[in-house]
């Protein structure tokens, strides 16, 4: 067995400690189980549903014209 140091965000660490206490197990065994499950999953990232798109109409300024863009930002 190898000892190592991990940086675990506080909320996650508290959840791991809580689970270990609820199950009467060591923190190390709970972390090892979570890592095993995560590595065994091996699933490819699933496709996410498409994001909604909206039409905002035609641009009010030519974005390739820096001066026009600056003028439009100053007007708001």
Structure, described:
- The chain has a domain at 10-41.
- Helix content is 51%, strand content 0%.
- It contains three helices and no strands.
- Helix 1 (10-23) crosses helix 2 (27-41).
- The longest helix is centred in the middle third of the chain and has 15 residues, at 27-41.
- It is elongated, with a radius of gyration of 25 Å.
Features:
76 residues, mainly alpha, 51% helix
Helix/strand layout:
Blueprint: H1 10-23, H2 27-41, H3 66-75
Helix pairs in contact: 1-2
Radius of gyration: 25 Å
Uncertain stretches = none
- Please report the distance between the alpha carbons of the first and last residues: 63 Å
| Percent helix | 40-55%
Describe the biggest sheet? none
Arithmetic mean of pLDDT = 89
Please, how many helices? Answer: 3
**Rough outline:** elongated
β content, as a range? under 5%
Counting helices, strands and paired strands, the structural category is mainly alpha
What is the tally of beta strands?
Answer: 0
The SSE string, one letter per element, is HHH
């Amino acid at each position: 067995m190898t000892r190592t140091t991990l940086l675990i965000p506080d909320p996650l660490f508290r959840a791991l400690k809580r689970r270990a206490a609820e199950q009467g197990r060591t923190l190390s065994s709970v972390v090892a189980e979570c890592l095993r499950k995560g590595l065994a999953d091996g699933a490819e990232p699933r496709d996410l549903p498409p994001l909604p798109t909206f039409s905002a109409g035609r641009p009010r300024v030519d974005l390739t014209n820096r001066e026009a863009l600056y003028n439009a930002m100053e007007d708001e």
